[in-house]
Design brief:
With 211 residues, this protein is α/β, with parallel strands linked by helices. The chain has helices at residues 31-42, 53-61, 70-84, 96-111, 193-209, and strands spanning 7-9, 17-21, 46-50, 89-94, 117-121, 146-151, 171-176. Helix 1 (31-42) links the parallel strand 2 and strand 3 (46-50).
Length: 211
């Protein structure tokens, strides 16, 4: 598999490197991904973004393609991790990108070569409208330090649903009040998107400093 291209923000060298993958529908330079990467970099961390093969083809060909199947997504993550090294690497991303990162984190634990940490932005615990179909099996025994930033009304896992899940103590959840899957609140909430994204970034900075 060819090595993905990276967008790099923050210091050239740092104690940690944070690698972020995009969600299913938007590329690595979407406004959300750019805001999060810029925000992490502004807090003093080195962050890299990359694209899965289907999104890279979308960019090159100008055509809309569905996401690659899970084995390709996971192989892409493995290629990224091999290139960057595991020892001081934190992996994660938006929605699908974060879920695939969590699956790789669990696999690497089983292989005895874990990454340093995991950060997920809007985790898809289940498909919208199908809360019975949870995607928890690989999370139940996860030991890698993990932070999930989740909107309280995220249709992929709300604040009412997620606390009942059998998640290990290694997984911390930072709730964004009234946030949707993109962490954005409604105007009626009295909160702004910037406030929620800043809250998520501040939580990430604390998490990363403590790794």
């Amino acid at each position: 598999m060819p090595q993905p291209d990276f967008l790099i923000d923050g210091p050239k060298k740092d104690r940690l490197t944070i690698a972020l993958a995009h969600g299913a529908g938007a590329p690595m330079d979407s406004p959300f991904m750019a805001t999060m990467a810029d925000g992490i970099a502004a807090r003093g961390f080195r962050v890299l973004r990359f694209e899965f093969p289907y999104m890279a083809r979308r960019r090159a060909e100008g055509t809309k393609r569905p996401p690659d199947r899970a084995p390709i997504l996971l192989d892409t993550w493995r290629a990224v991790i091999t290139q960057l090294g595991r020892q001081n690497l934190v992996i994660g991303g938006k929605s699908m990108g974060g879920r695939m990162a969590s699956m790789i984190a669990a696999d690497l634990e089983a292989e005895g070569t874990p990454v340093r940490g995991l950060v997920c932005l809007g985790y898809p615990f289940h498909a919208p409208g199908k809360p019975e179909g949870t995607r928890l099996d690989h999370l139940k025994a996860l030991k890698t330090p993990t932070l999930i930033c989740q909107g309280t009304r995220d249709p992929f896992g709300t604040k009412e649903q997620v606390p009942s899940y059998p998640l290990p103590r290694s997984i911390g959840i930072h709730w964004l009040e009234d946030g949707e899957h993109n962490l954005k609140p409604r105007k009626a909430s009295g909160l702004t998107e910037d406030e929620n994204l800043t809250s998520a970034l501040d939580a990430m900075a604390v998490f990363l400093k403590n790794l």
